[in-house]
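Task: encode each sequence below as structure tokens.

Item 1
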Amino acid sequence: MERLHRLWREDKYEEVEAGARALEAEAGRLRRRGRGIAVAWHAKALATAAACAHGRGAQVLAELESLTAELSGMAGPGRELLLMIRNTHMVVLNGEGRYGEAEAEGLEVLRDLTRLKHLVPVWDIELSVLANLVDALCGQGRHEEAEAVARGNLPRADGGTVAALHHGLVCSLNGQGRCHEALTEARRITPPGDRDQSGNLGMATAVALHGLGHRSEAETAAREALTDCERFLHPDHPRIQEARTLLARITAGDPPPSTAEEIARG
């Protein structure tokens, strides 16, 4: 498991998923049934998270929901694992455009995390859930709420959550028509993001440029974002289609989209 987590930190999602699936199968053959079940749960959770990060979230949605049902009511380490799985579920729901459901899931997870804070450090899960919540709010056109969540939590974020919250902040500003602020924020920093963030900031930058009437620059940014998506993400990742739709919209001279849902619809 330690090797798989190291591969995760190196953004090698395909290797992580393959290794986790093999570990899950091996766990079924462990003599100590209790230990085998626990290992299998962790391996499946890691495999589905890797598939989701790569862009195959829709393919593991049923598996995530089954695993959630299986772990519901668990105490101890199983409780923390369940919240990680539900966070992954949020990512899939956002990717499928089911933003209201993603928001509801996120609010429930945050409430459960509050009850765990005095027992184990859960700030990393919490920040990831908050970043997903920002995406869910933007998807519903609730950009002012999204901005407040992103701004309020960016100062304490680190690692990949910085990039996720920063992207969410830029999107929330775009959604309010504050494209100049969005562009300034997008260019203020370029936080190192994980591979699953590929194309995100570039698309948000393209939307800001488009909103300011800089069509040529917007097209360049959108093309670069699409290239990043196609290079680093699975062909089924919903962001690839979003990037293509955005590029088509810019080249056609259509008005800039204000929400993630509008980008997806074209």
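Item 2
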Amino acid sequence: MFLKIYFVFEARKEKQLEKAKERGHKGIGVFRKVEDAVVNKVEDIGIDVEEGFSEAFEVLKEGKKEIMKLIINMISNLIVLFLILPLLYFYIMSFLLKKFFHFSGLSTIEKVQENNLKKIGDDLNSSST
């Protein structure tokens, strides 16, 4: 890149030297040298800015990829921690309760409801007689 810039500067100097010789001068004038120096500095600054922006763009591009990886990892961890593991825990606990203690929440609820209905029936029979 810098060689390309160097060749552009040299080509410009050669053109200016040819124009100066056509006009009958021995070399490039002071005004042209100052103008070239200013133009060269401006072009150098433009190239530095362009390289800086391209480097910043590359950093942002790589950062975006890393952030996406981290977000995917975080979401998968949240799904495992707050969805799969609790469901697995409750499944294993219900299996163990049924296996070792012959416990079933539905049968317990059914017995309680049956006892409540019997009490209500007894209360109705005793109050109606």
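Check on item 2: The chain has a mean pLDDT of 82. Residues 30-101 form the longest helix (72 residues).
End of task.
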